[in-house]
């Protein structure tokens, strides 16, 4: 091959073969059909490997396939080449080095190729004053590793040049989501730089605010021009208000306001009335200081700010994060943190706990070669691949390396303390597991318990062969219902994945202190004085366990013995004990005004837990079972009409009722389902539906009406491909006392028509569970993990009721929809705190303030 012209390769190209300029076109000719120009809708990954957390910052850089636009680290690109035959990749590499200042005037060297990766997301440290970076790109042709440096417009074919430019200028795939998703960035307000502020002497107190035009004390906004405190409107912040902040803007024209209660050292919620949307104010600290608010020393709280001049209260934020204690960073396998993507700490905390469990480690990381080798062509859209990638990132230690000794010495010499723990970014994982889920895909904070059940559901749906690591959480609950009048009983079993423990507030051991504190708090708020030192209720764990074991009243109980409604009580016991017991403290409740609130309590959670006494015993001698008689079917005409008409069209949902429920802090999709399944009968009825269903794993899943169609459709949708009736209509029939199998067979026989199914049941009193039907039921079971039949064999790992605490997740804030999550895990005999990307040895693990606790069984 003739050599002419300059060589086109990059120094340090890792052994790639260099090509002369004249040979470039000829070299690419065989591969031209495989090179594509990204089209609208194509996801171009140039920040992160599909199988690892390698990036252009990594030593080997990143390879972007010029056909699929997937990215791969150096150790994974060969796998993609062998699997797909795609030969042409763009290699991206970012070189970072410390800046060398010139001898005179401290001039800095010019940064080269500064616009090459225009949309490349990188760590903030790379843009600091101490470092410069140089980006380089080249085409690499496999398997011979020919390298063609970029840009090279003169020698490359036009199609290749256009494709390369399009890849380099493409946006991140995570910014192409809806405006409400977690990757969205707020615009900087055009009024922030030159905002006028009146010198009127207004100073904002740390608490006790109320609207200047009404008596509202919630959803209050501070106008940054004149210091007025006024109420907002529900449509911006999902909170109630009379719109006085907006009226003030219309009267005065002052454009910016900040929501009180959201101000922290990291920022606050700022709204621009003129620009009609939330914005960023880069000078927020200065604007707040004008009214006496020191933003850098603030914490957002339920009722106000903590002023720097007031004696600081010991809040749960400080205790749970172990603030004020110099914590030693931890490095190596199992000590890798996760970057916060913006209220993603609920996901990070759950995943840290999950991958501290050996069964999950073996199922995913232990099977890494097989999972990666057999992954689909787009591994970014495969659950098992992304779980394995995340597990390997957390456990390998590859992304958690201690700083070099020379770097530590340099920091000491410069009197600096630069963050060394970068952690890994779960962008790809979060984007996939939250796909099509309006709550988890948003930038809002979520409930860690709901995400845990959502993850269990995904693991169930995507099990690897017969192996299902979520079985370690699975257990059977025996529910005993007793008719109070006849004393007869009925025993049933259901599947669950966590134990929900009520907070026994009435058992607080410091009631006198609590009463005194509440009186002082109210007095301080009324007189706009600093709040007193916080007094937290101290609840014995034994009282919470006793409350769990106590019978509950059964609402609207129909006694088959009396053939009438009667009083009934229900008790729950463990029909089997799981290998790993997850305990959720039910800290969140609702006041009489339907407003969610959190119990700020201290519970002495034990390191060793024995629940053997909660083992189910089944039907006892002397107990008489309730007759297996179904209650009479009474469907009022108006209710029947609602079922047949209103529920058919999801577009007719009463959005005002939905918004009333959403304002209380419930997930939007759960509110829509509540209004839908109660037939638009109002927010109060829908609220009761929410209370009954809020503990179900799919509580916040989107409303789905299978097979919804025209006249031929049944009430809840037309027959699906597998003729599996919708769970909603099954639940209606089983709530009348019929067996689940009976309900399913009746619905299948009547094309899922509720009214005809009820007639079918009464016309088939001889119904029996034949084996063929049961086999078909099992084969067609859907992914709803709550409604599964009793599992058999290895699906339940029963054993001893003795457990040892090994991890817990704590929540800071007043609601699951706000605040922050932190995880503590016991590793190698000591507690470790996982606070987003920071992983440190724990000095004072706050075991009494946790929200979710993870126990492992102690072998008997």
UniProtKB/TrEMBL annotation:
The keyword Iron does not apply. Residues 187-295 form the UBP-type domain. Keywords: Autophagy, Cytoplasm, Hydrolase, Isopeptide bond, Metal-binding, Phosphoprotein, Protease, Repeat, Thiol protease, Ubl conjugation, Ubl conjugation pathway, Zinc, Zinc-finger. Signal peptide: none annotated. One of its GO terms (molecular function) is ubiquitin binding. The keyword Zinc applies. Residues 336-858 form the USP domain. It comes from the Eukaryota. Pfam families: UBA, UCH, zf-UBP, zf-UBP_var. SUPFAM superfamilies: Cysteine proteinases, RING/U-box, UBA-like. Residues 652-693, 724-764 form the UBA domain. GO terms for cellular component: cytoplasm. Its main location: cytoplasm. Gene3D superfamilies: Cysteine proteinases, DNA helicase RuvA subunit, C-terminal domain, Zinc/RING finger domain, C3HC4 (zinc finger). It catalyses: Thiol-dependent hydrolysis of ester, thioester, amide, peptide and isopeptide bonds formed by the C-terminal Gly of ubiquitin (a 76-residue protein attached to proteins as an intracellular targeting signal). Deubiquitinating enzyme that removes conjugated ubiquitin from specific proteins to regulate different cellular processes. Belongs to the peptidase C19 family. Interacts with UFD1. Interacts (via UBA domains) with SIAH2 (when ubiquitinated). Interacts with BAG6; the interaction is direct and may mediate UBL4A deubiquitination. Interacts (via UBA 2 domain) with AMFR; the interaction is direct. Interacts with UBL4A; may be indirect via BAG6. Interacts with NEDD4. This is Ubiquitin carboxyl-terminal hydrolase. It comes from Mesocricetus auratus. The lineage of its organism: Eukaryota, Metazoa, Chordata, Craniata, Vertebrata.
């Amino acid at each position: 091959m003739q050599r002419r012209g300059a060589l086109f390769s990059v120094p340090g190209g890792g052994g790639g073969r260099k090509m002369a300029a004249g040979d470039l076109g000829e070299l690419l000719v065989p591969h031209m059909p495989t090179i594509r120009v990204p089209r609208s809708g194509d996801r171009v990954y140039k920040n992160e490997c599909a199988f690892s957390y390698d990036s252009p910052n990594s030593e080997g850089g990143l390879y972007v396939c010029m056909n699929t636009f997937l990215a791969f680290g150096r150790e994974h690109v060969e796998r993609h080449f062998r699997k797909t035959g795609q030969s042409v990749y763009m290699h991206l590499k970012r070189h970072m080095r410390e800046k060398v200042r010139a001898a005179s005037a401290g001039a800095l060297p010019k940064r080269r190729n500064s616009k090459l990766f225009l949309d490349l997301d990188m760590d903030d440290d790379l843009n600091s004053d101490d470092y410069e970076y140089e980006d380089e790109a080249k085409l690499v042709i496999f398997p011979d590793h020919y390298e063609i440096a970029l840009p090279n417009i003169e020698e490359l074919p036009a199609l290749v040049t256009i494709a390369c430019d399009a890849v380099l200028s493409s946006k991140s795939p995570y910014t192409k989501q809806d405006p409400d998703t977690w990757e969205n960035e707020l615009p900087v307000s055009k009024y922030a730089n030159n905002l006028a502020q009146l010198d009127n002497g207004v100073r904002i107190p740390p608490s006790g605010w109320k609207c200047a035009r009404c008596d509202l004390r919630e959803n209050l906004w501070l106008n940054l021009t004149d210091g007025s405190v006024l109420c907002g409107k529900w449509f911006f912040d999902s909170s109630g208000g009379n719109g006085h902040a907006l009226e003030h803007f219309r009267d005065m024209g002052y454009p910016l306001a900040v929501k009180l209660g959201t101000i922290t050292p990291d920022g606050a919620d700022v709204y621009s009335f003129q620009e009609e949307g939330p914005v960023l104010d880069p000078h927020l600290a200065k604007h707040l200081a004008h009214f006496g608010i020191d933003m850098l020393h603030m914490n957002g709280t339920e009722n106000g700010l903590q002023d720097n001049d007031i004696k600081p209260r010991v809040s749960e934020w400080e205790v749970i994060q172990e603030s004020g204690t110099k914590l030693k960073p931890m490095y190596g396998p199992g000590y890798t943190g996760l970057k916060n993507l913006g209220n993603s700490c609920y996901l990070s905390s759950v995943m840290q706990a999950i991958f501290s469990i050996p069964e999950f480690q073996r199922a995913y990381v232990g099977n890494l070669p097989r999972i990666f080798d057999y992954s689909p062509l787009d591994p970014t859209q495969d659950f098992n691949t992304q779980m394995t990638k995340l597990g390997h990132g957390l456990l390998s230690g590859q992304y958690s390396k201690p700083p070099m000794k020379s770097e530590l010495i340099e920091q000491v010499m410069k009197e600096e303390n630069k963050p060394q723990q970068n952690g890994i970014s779960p962008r790809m994982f979060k984007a996939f597991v939250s796909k099509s889920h309006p709550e988890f895909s948003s930038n809002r904070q979520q409930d860690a318990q709901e995400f845990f059940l959502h993850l269990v559901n995904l693991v169930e749906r995507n099990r690897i062969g017969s192996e299902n690591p979520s079985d370690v959480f699975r257990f059977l609950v025996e529910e005993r219902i007793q008719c109070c009048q006849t004393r007869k009983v009925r025993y049933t079993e259901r599947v669950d994945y966590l134990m929900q423990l009520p907070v026994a507030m009435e058992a607080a051991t410091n009631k006198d202190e609590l009463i005194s504190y509440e009186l002082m708090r109210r007095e301080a708020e009324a007189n706009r004085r600093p709040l007193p030192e916080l007094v937290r209720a101290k609840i014995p764990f034994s009282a919470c366990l006793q409350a769990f074991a106590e019978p509950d009243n059964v609402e609207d109980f129909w006694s088959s013995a009396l053939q009438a409604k009667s009083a009934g009580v229900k008790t729950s016991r463990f029909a089997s004990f799981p290998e790993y017991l997850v305990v959720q403290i039910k800290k969140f409740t609702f006041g009489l005004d339907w407003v969610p609130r959190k119990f700020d309590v201290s519970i002495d959670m034990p390191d060793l837990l024995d629940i053997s006494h909660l083992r189910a015993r089944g039907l006892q001698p002397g107990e008489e079972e309730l007759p297996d008689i179904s209650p009479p079917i009474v469907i009022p005409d108006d209710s029947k009409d609602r079922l047949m008409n209103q529920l058919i069209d999801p577009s007719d949902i009463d959005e005002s009722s939905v918004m009333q429920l959403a304002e209380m802090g419930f997930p939007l999709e759960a509110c829509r389902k509540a209004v839908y399944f109660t037939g638009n009968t109002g927010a109060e009825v829908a609220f009761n539906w929410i209370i009954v269903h809020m503990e179900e794993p799919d509580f916040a899943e989107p409303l789905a009406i299978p097979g919804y169609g025209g006249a031929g459709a049944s009430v809840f949708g037309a027959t699906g491909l597998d003729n599996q009736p919708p769970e909603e209509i099954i639940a209606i029939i089983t709530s009348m006392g019929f067996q689940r199998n009976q309900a399913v067979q009746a619905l299948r026989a009547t094309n899922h028509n509720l009214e005809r199914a009820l007639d079918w049941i009464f016309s088939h009193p001889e119904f029996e569970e034949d084996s063929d039907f049961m086999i078909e039921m099992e084969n067609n079971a859907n992914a709803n993990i709550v409604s599964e039949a009793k599992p058999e064999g290895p699906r339940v790992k029963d054993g001893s009721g003795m457990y040892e605490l090994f991890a817990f997740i704590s929540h800071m804030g007043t609601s699951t929809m706000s605040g922050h999550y932190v995880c503590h895990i016991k590793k190698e005999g000591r507690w470790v705190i996982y606070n987003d990307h920071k992983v440190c040895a724990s000095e004072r693990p706050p075991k009494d303030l946790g929200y979710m606790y993870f126990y492992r069984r102690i072998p008997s």
